[in-house]
Amino acid sequence: MLVYSDKDRRGDFSGGVLAVAPNGTIRSDQAQFFLGPAKKPPSATAAVTPSSQIEKIIASGHVLLTQPGRKGEGEQLVYTAADGRYVLTGTPAAPPYVMDAVKGTTTGAALIFNDQDDSVEVSGGQSAAVTKTRAPK
After folding, report:
1. CB 41 within 8 A of CB 48
2. Domains of the chain (ranges plus CATH)?
């Protein structure tokens, strides 16, 4: 189900969400998206509708982030378009983790995926970060 407020430039999805982007997918129990201001095309006519871009997505509840070669799971994911960052968090009992085909499995209090350089940053917070890697044979 989608509830949208044009005044707030916000949409709330519930009942299972699948967000698809060119570089991966996000699955979660619910999600909110926030749009930037509507922009009119340069040659706007009465028949042309202004367009908007997503500024932020907050996905929560059984979050699964899938990108080529990696998969991350946690309880909440916050994506900000301005810097291309995904911040995946979990709970103390079930911290977030990412499984990477090349680098192995990584976990910590927060995992920060950066679209611009394809890196993953681990924030340990109050729990220590654990990284498992596989050495080439």
Report:
1. yes
2. 2-36+52-132 (2.60.450.10)
Terminal C-alpha separation, the chain: 48
Which has more pLDDT, 42 or 4?
A: 4
Residue that is written with structure tokens 């871009």 in the block? 53
pTM: 0.80
Could you give the CA distance from residue 106 to residue 96 in angstroms, rounded to a whole number? 9
CA distance 91 to 39: 39
Q: What is the pLDDT of residues 89-115, one digit of tens each?
A: 999 899 999 998 888 888 989 999 887
Give the CA radius of gyration of the chain: 17
Tokens for 126, please give them: 């109050």
* Closest among 65, 76, 72 to 23, alpha carbons compared: 65
Decide: 51 and 64 in contact? Cβ < 8 Å: no
Ranked by mean pLDDT, which of 47-56, 73-82, 96-105, 106-115 comes out on top? 73-82
Paired residues of 50 in beta bridges: none
78 burial level (CB within 10 Å; 0-12, 13-18, 19+): middle
